[in-house]
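Bench notes, bay 3.
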Amino acid sequence: MGYAATILRLAHRLTWLALAAAIYLIQLRLSLWRTANHRYGPIEWLLRKATYGPRHRPTPTTQ
């Protein structure tokens, strides 16, 4: 293989690496926002709604 093919393969790998890093950073940012603004995570919230029903209000925590 020539130099161009090697460079293209490397560029392709770097593109996927950059995409994976961008997705990770977006997920990290959303996770930090979610934990700062909500008491429960999304799956725990769904399980609580399914278990207790829509009218259940959790008791406030003391700090």
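Next record in the batch:
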Amino acid sequence: MMTTAEGGDARRGGPTYDHARTAAGDPADESTDVASGGPVGDGAGEGADAGQVIARYLDHVDGERGLARNSVLAYRRDLRRYQEHLSGRGIRSLGAVGEAQIAQFAITLRTGDESHPPLAAASVARMLVAVRSLHRYAAREGDVSADVAGLVRPAAPPRRPPRALTVDQVTALILQAGAATGEDQTGLARRLRSAALLELLYGTGARISEAVGLDLDDLDLDESVVRLRGKGGRGRVVPLGRYAVIALERYLRGGRPLLVAGVGDAGPAVFVSRRGTRLSRQSAWSALRAAADAAGVTGASPHVLRHSFAAHLLDRGADVRVVQELLGHASVSTTQIYTLTNTDLTTMDHLREVYTSSHPRAVPCPCPGTTATVTAPAVTRLPVPAPVGERPIGDGDPIGAGDRDGARSPEAGA
């Protein structure tokens, strides 16, 4: 993590600045220090109060940009941490912040302090996205004279394939979700609800917030489709598989009526609690965790089911653009991370099958466990002059037979 202005100082932890004075000791230099990222003057600085700007910015992303509720909550947490960092150093105005202060904030996040543990690189990058967006907004609104965060770049976290379960693990998870939990009516309803929820999550790649936010009008089981409302208010229509349709029909006919019995106005929610209210994300999480514990599957979560949905589709030849549409990704680059090699899901047999069925010049050979045989086209081999001291390569010799005693055949040198 470094800034353009500071070079290697950010990597070494950056210098400690005294905000009560300037680097040159001349108050006349204060106006230029903010723009250059150097030491700033009085912590109060010029410009609007940081807390007021943050409040207006959060209203902006919630109302005008229409970000999802969870995204707004994440921005609020991240910017509260940023404001606490600035206040602890006597800075009350965004106009008194330079590149050096933002870089120091990133270093503090990575190393931790007396009140917070160190954060992973991905978490630091996420917080810096919120900080950069705040300063860009403040500059556009005229609260500060320049966007000093524009040149502060978070370190790119390593790209790793998202964790995904195998098909057998997903099957075991869903079977356990639908397993009997008791003979009482509530137990039956919760079992049907859990099975329908997990089938929906895995069958559509829905986010947990999209699943619990479903209304009855979003389902069309006759046409086997569901309308999901994603981030930023973006909606998409996703096909429903046969297993998901059956599980949802069973729940809507035999489970949901039991949960809303005695409730005057149950509302439009598809997934409801035993009190008839919309199921919360935490309750949905608990249902999945209970099924995972019973099935002995570790690392399962709603988002891992979403990862599994995408990985299994791509593993079976689905086009990445189609998977992008199904997941509701704004950019295909987000979806392409699923194309990274996942050794838990890709086997040599599968690689051989895809290669031989897709490459125009591939010639399948009889492989263990298969009966199909494809005859390779005949190849006419021209006589090859033998090097001095070597016998000619005959038709019965394997390729590379001329490599004996350290000599290389003409074919090997090609």
